[in-house]
Specification:
The protein is about 55% helix and about 20% strand. Strands 1-2-4-3 form a four-stranded mixed sheet, with helices on both faces. The chain has a single domain, classed as Metalloproteases ("zincins"), catalytic domain (Collagenase (Catalytic Domain)), CATH 3.40.390. It contains five helices and four strands. By secondary structure, it is an alpha/beta fold.
Length: about 150
């Protein structure tokens, strides 16, 4: 699959191993039949994401993620903006580790591009299942790396 995943940062936060995250996202996309992928993840704070939310969605609510999805059929194309402020706060509220919440939010954005919605209770349940499947894939891949020489 022809795929690119890029990361930009508007905060002090930086992913420890961008290639590891890119490989994980590509594997998640393949599981849902993506044929190509061009993603950009932008990590920012609440203020920056709120500006995007107001400008493009005319929404004044704080959110953890906005997915600008230009996917065509199975060719995933998107810019995904994530508020690290929200991710940290949601991790505390849901008593989850920051890393796990970040994986959930990153997979959430990708899943929107793959056809998942979250407007209804049934859609939210399916989205959560998809997020969990992606998170599980991340952890399985990391275990393989640790034990393979």
């Amino acid at each position: 699959m022809n795929a690119s995943v890029d990361f930009t940062y508007q905060t002090d936060f930086v992913l420890g191993d961008e290639q590891m995250f890119a490989n994980w996202l590509i594997k998640c996309a393949k599981q849902y039949s993506a044929t190509s992928m061009a993603l950009v993840y932008a990590f920012m704070d609440d203020e920056a994401l709120l500006k995007l939310n107001l400008k493009y969605l005319r929404n004044s609510m704080l959110t953890d993620i906005i997915t600008f999805d230009d996917t065509i059929d199975n060719d995933v194309i998107a810019n995904i903006a994530i508020s690290l402020t929200r991710v940290r706060e949601n991790a505390a509220v849901y008593q989850a580790a920051f890393d796990e919440e970040l994986l959930r939010v990153m997979s959430h954005g990708l899943l929107h591009c793959l056809g998942f919605e979250d407007k209804t209770a049934i859609q939210q349940t399916e989205m959560r299942k998809g997020e969990q499947a992606c998170i599980q894939l991340f952890h399985v891949e990391q275990k393989k790396k640790k034990y393979v020489s």
